[in-house]
Amino acid sequence: RSCRRVAEKPSTKQNSAMAKIKPHELRTKTKEELEKQLDELKGELQSLRVAKVTGGAASKLSKIRVVRKSIARVLTVINQTQKAALREHFAKSKRVPLDLRSKKTRAMRRALTQFEQDAVTERQRKREIHFPQRKYAIKA
To answer: Residue 134: phi, psi to the nearest 5?
Structure first.
C-alpha cells in the first residue's frame, strides 16, 4: 500500500493547485453557500469513484484525495462557525452546554471555586474575631 501512495504523490501536486479550497475563502461564505458547495463536492467525489471502478485516468484517481480533503475543509468551517455562534449565544447565560465549557482536567473541574474556598462558617468567623493569632516578639 505504501508503494502505491508514493506513486500517486507527484500527480496530486499538479491537481491540488487547481481544486484545493482555502479555508479563509470558505469563512466569508454563508451557510447555504457552504452546504451547496458541499453537495457539489460530494457529487464530484461520487463521479470520481465511479470513474475509478470503470478504470478512469490516473488524473481522476489522484483527484479523489483532493476532493475528500476539500469536503473535510468545508465541513470543518461549517462546524466551527456553528460552534462560534453557539458560544456567542450562551456567553451571558448562567448555564452553558457541556461541549462549550472549558475542558481543563477532571480534578480542576471538581476543585472548589475561590468563593467556596473563602467561605467561613459563622462560628469560625466569631472565633477569628475574638481569639486572633497571638504575636510574639523574641528578645535578642
So the answer is: -75, 145
